[in-house]
Amino acid sequence: MLARLRITQAPLILVLLATAGCAETAYRYMNDPARDEWQQPKAVVEALKIAPGSRVADLGAGGGYFTWYLADAVGPQGKVYAADIEEVGLRMVREEAGRRGLHQVETVRSTATDAKLLEPVELIFLCNTYHHLRDRPAYFRALAGSLTPAGRIAIIDYKPSGLPWLFGHATSEETVRTEMESAGYHLVEAPDFLPKQHFLIFRPALPRGP
Ligand SMILES: C[S@@+](CC[C@H](N)C(=O)[O-])C[C@H]1O[C@@H](n2cnc3c(N)ncnc32)[C@H](O)[C@@H]1O
């Protein structure tokens, strides 16, 4: 019952915690294993078919909910850049990576307009981050420079219904597709097993030059 309450009221609780300046509590809340029931992190990362040794960015990593699944997929020879504009979550990620002995995880302090990734990556993954970004067509047009030639961008965001929509923490699939197309990407896959979110995978429409 408590888990169900936590899940259904999640956006409201997160907004209240963030407004009250309780970022660490908000990130711990996002990392609650009760979330696994609907977020299905293992199935999400499996659907991404990440090759061992890949370089991946978890953009808007928060408290690292997906970082550990991505780190497992890339393995010790790969790299996960956990990028966020908030230092609180990045500190939590560094501490947890240390506890888990995961040397493939590195934190990156982004700015609102620049992910600041340290090298091009095969995959940029965003979960519940898309709706936070400003001027998204310009943002993703610039982000193409942080992808390898065969690189992909995977976006998971809340569908426009219920509390996420009410609090502006959602985008329609149509909006994401239109904005990404105007940024120079095309949709290559749309896994549809998540109950509350859409899950869209894009590639640059035109291959980048040498
Ligand atoms: C709702 S949280 C999602 C965290 C994590 N991806 C998850 O699924 O638990 C959104 C995160 O995006 C971050 N964020 C917002 N704007 C950003 C930007 N321009 N660049 C990087 N991160 C950003 C926020 O600081 C926050 O940690």
From TrEMBL:
Keyword Transferase included in the entry's annotation: yes
PROSITE patterns: PROKAR_LIPOPROTEIN (PS51257)
Domain called Methyltransferase type: residue spans: 58-153
Keywords: Transferase
CDD domains listed in its UniProt record: AdoMet_MTases (cd02440)
Molecular function terms, GO-annotated: transferase activity
Superkingdom of source: Bacteria
Gene3D superfamilies attached to this UniProt entry: Vaccinia Virus protein VP39
PANTHER family: PUTATIVE (AFU_ORTHOLOGUE AFUA_2G14390)-RELATED, TRANS-ACONITATE 2-METHYLTRANSFERASE-RELATED
Identification of the protein by name: Methyltranfer_dom domain-containing protein
Species this chain originates from: Nitrospira tepida
